[in-house]
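Sample intake sheet
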Amino acid sequence: MLRFDEIGVLPEPGDNVAISSRRLETGTVIDFAGTPVTLPHTVLEGHRFVARPVATGEPLLSWNTPFARALRDLAIGDYVCTPTSLAAVSARGVEGLPAEPSAENEPLDPYELDESALNLGRQVTSVEQPGTFLGYPREQGPAGTRNHVVLMATSSRSSGFVTELARRFGDGFVVPVAHTEGGEEGTPNNLSFLLATLAGFALNPNVGAVLIVDTEGELVSGQAIKDFMAEHGYPEIRVPHAYFTRRAGFEADLTAAGRLVEPWLPIVAAQSRQEVPLADLWIGLQCGGSDAFSGVSANPLSGAVAREVIRHGGIAVLAETDELIGAEGYVLKNVRDLPTARRFLETVQSFKERVGWHGHTAEGNPSGGNVYRGLYNIVLKSVGAARKLDRDVRLDHVIDYAERMPGHGFVFMDSPGNDLESVAGQVASGCNLIFFTTGNGSITNFPFVPTLKFVTTTTRYDLLHAEMDVDAGRYLTGTPMDELTDETFALTVQVASGQPSAGERAGHSQVSIWRNWRQTAPRPGISITPDGRTTRPLTDLPPEDRDAPLPGTPLMLAASAGSLGDGVEAAPAPEAPASGAAQLASGGSAPPGAVRLLRVDERVVPEAVGLILPTSLCSGQIALRLAAQGEVERWAGDAVTRMVALPHTEGCGSSGGASEETFARTMLGYLLHPNTRMALLLEHGCEKTHNDYFRSRLVEAGADPSRFGWASIQADGGLDAVTGRVRDWFGSFTLDAPQEVQSTLGELTIALEARGPLTTETAEALALTGREIVGAGGSVVLSSRGALLNDERFRYAAFGSITPIGPTIAHGQRFTAKGWHVMRMPGTDWMETVTGFGAGGVQQVLAHVASGTLSAQRFVPVIEFSSDPETVAQYGDDLDAVASGNASEQAAVALETLAAVASRQQVPKAVASGNVGFQITRGLLGTSM
């Protein structure tokens, strides 16, 4: 028999349900104040069970806050589970669960502010003698806790450039800020947030020098940042800095940019730490991978240490707006004045409206990992997250995302629940240290701002001690909170003074800015109640809004029926264009040149890839490191031609529905891609789309999950342990090396793209190139938003008609019938476009470029050619081929280059130089949460 105090935690004395501090199997006997109770069901660690009888319809309380209501009379020891939490646990294969849920979520009624009863309290008393730390004094604001040279991309178009430039400096002192935003054509809805964030990054006190990099002709430029700063009264950048615009070849620009940075290195390195007041310590308060104990141990501890920072004159910044919905009363228990209270509630309401435009509510915030670890719904997550605001601390200010600090004290910043996006806003507001509380053991860190990790339980701390800084779980086993506060405050001062945090020692860093959202008003077919609680299914929306799969019928079948089945005939080729290129038309006398492909597992492909696929944004950078290590150490031997990782921003901290379906389809597209020979999924451990999620998705797709490797950063025990697991999996196979075979481009799926102006000859040449590939039995994919499909000259040369053409496949959808296909594209971002191509099975992309070049994609080779003399003169070093002459001559160059790359005789320039990326679209309805 176990005593209740050995296994149960009551967040507040008046609660009627307790949190289990360990897994309790069915039949476990617990002593409740002298009364033995046998548990009728399994209760997982962090899940709740009844501590005193609850009648049908009565509220279930944690922190004295109703989070659910009983669906039947509940006795002491009954397992508390909602439909969502029961489904999440059942999906993980847990046995001993009830057949039906015992509770339903408490409705998220709008919070009603009683202005007459508002407590306009005082801030905590300042210490008599404020302390100091060793920092880097700055002219433009507080002192820095670090001193980095930062290479900042203004948009996604320069992200590959700053990443490669920082890599070439190679010492961790020079760090890149690469992100996914601002790369589309037109004005993004998040433009003001993006400019404020970039301006704030440049002014952050941890920046000792900054190079701001843009690409010629883009909207989000260095000049746009300068104009934004002047318009909004930002101070000048007073550290060494420069603005650099890419105007030449990638290598030439790297050399030129490097010359700007090199003189700063000795200047920044020579700066020494000095004693500065603790008032210069500005803390960003974050949580990620939260569990049921976050609100009991780690969040209260971080709040208590933040209280001490404020008492010394510093600042603490709470964020993640949607993770305070349901906890408004707690946040406003002590507030500076009525306008501050009103602004906080207006911010919450604005966030609800924004996600409502996309058909979502705050209940979409808790990730699968949150629910599995005991946070059944947004109320439980919010009331626990709000504990980062200590009971004795007053809310002083409310600011917008990335807004500059209005004053000292405790600040709330509007931001999504997405951890990385929220951290970016805090850093832009001036935070020079991050407190990150975590239940599962999140390992994410920011490039130039140190992060202290507070883990909620000692068990999890012991598992991940190399990646964690503070064991807040000691509070659960008897260590007084005051003692933990004193220890952690001392550690905070040490890290601010230069002691590396666990995340810095691990070398992990990542940046994600609040991602663009498509909608600016409610969509037809979406119904949201005034309080944002419910939404109708999106079946009334047009298919392009839902990004639903399409039948996949090609515009024109491939000439070689092959695997299409008996009786399938190719559609007739259109009449050749008037340019005289009939000799290259489908069915003509000059088929595509022979290529040397690889026979791999009964298929013929241009390469055999060993893929490490992160299941969410938080495992992306670790996947990159593992793939690079696996390449060097040849974990898969001769079985693969290269190792690839595909970091992205999705899988957690973003809405579900149509966006999640597109994400899942994209991920499966790469797992099942014909070029993928070995694939391992790497989960962080607390995401919405974890390993078990993708196991079920693979089964739905008719694939065998046992073909794939599975690893978890958190569950496997941290970076060293997961590295060993991944290495062992790739090394556990004895596979023959791929064998070269003679073939043609007709074996392949090629995407055609054009960026910039097109001549008639080039438009026809691309059409002829596609006709040759399809005529030889291959497939060609176009983007529905691309320049080619919108060019009447191309449509006529390719299909014999200028009639507009709609999509045949959804974004990232794999097709079953070979031929010409059009992929539906919700936006114009280049990297999202090529990522969709790859998910659909595209093996190479041929892009004609004018007035600039493109970044390559990590998985799918991007071949760039141009017939534009000015582009050739300016960017010739980045081009894989130069075409001239009539359409047939240009098509011949395109086909020869495709064949050379497919035969592994030529590596695309962008790939060789390191100008690569990968990004998954959120479609029209995805939004950050």
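Comment: Residues 528-538, 560-591 have pLDDT under 50 and may be disordered. Residues 338-357 form the longest helix (20 residues).
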